[in-house]
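queue> holo job accepted (adenosine monophosphate)
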Amino acid sequence: MEIIRTKQRLADVVDDARRQGRSIGLVPTMGALHAGHRSLVERARKENDVVIVSVFVNPTQFNNPDDLRTYPRTEEADAAMLEACGVDYAFIPSVEEVYPEPDTRVFDLGPVAEVMEGAMRPGHFNGVAQIVSKLFALTKPTRAYFGEKDFQQIAVIRRMVELEGFDLEIVPCPIVREADGLALSSRNVRLSPEARAIAPKIHYILELSRDLKAAGKQAAEVQQATLDAINDVEGLEAEYYQIVDAATMQPISRWEDAGELGAAGCVTVFCGGVRLIDNIRY
Ligand code: AMP
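queue> job finished
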């Protein structure tokens, strides 16, 4: 595996690969890699001739400076994991390399980016669109892999791809969880032992909410009951729990209002001061 630090070197290897007609799989990450990231990388490895993984803590998508400052950075371990997965190139640039000057682009992301994470984290999705569009332009991937843990992010990226006219396939990948149900996240290392012990209740409560649907409750009732159940757990405080159309991200109150992809329930919960996100499909 080669570690690439510059856009120029990346452009050269990408051009070579494309000239030879080789498919390119891209996995964008912010590092502090775990088994969730690994599942994306392994899938990319199976489906492409060349695999590029980017490791870059993108400052423009952080709306909270403390979160950016304390974001875990484990480059050596990340490189070792990527090498073991058979990755061809790890793109690990500096902030100056990616943003030689400030990125002032504003993307017209529309309704998918206005709700939930978009409403709670102003500027976050525009920052995601900035970095992902740069990565797509640089790596010209055949396929790009994203985790369904960041469910709304996938819809936002699809919108960005449409706006920018990128010719590539977005591959959504299932959420990888700990044995007790907690969705893997780089931010989980911030959980105190006490917070870590209650965090799995989030997934447990989301699973129970499926039973409410099966018992005939409408989406609005399931949403309220789930929100209440989370907030009833001492140590959990939900920022939002929203049942949405899984394609448009728009809130629904009746199951029959969901389109072809069905409904999803998306949640953000503060657990011992750590902001955790998760979701479930109905
Ligand atoms: P991040 O490094 O947190 O920006 O995540 C990079 C990619 O890994 C994103 O597409 C995430 O959705 C995905 N990812 C993060 N955690 C998980 C997980 N537990 N399961 C599956 N994918 C994940």
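queue> The chain has two domains: 2-173, 186-281.
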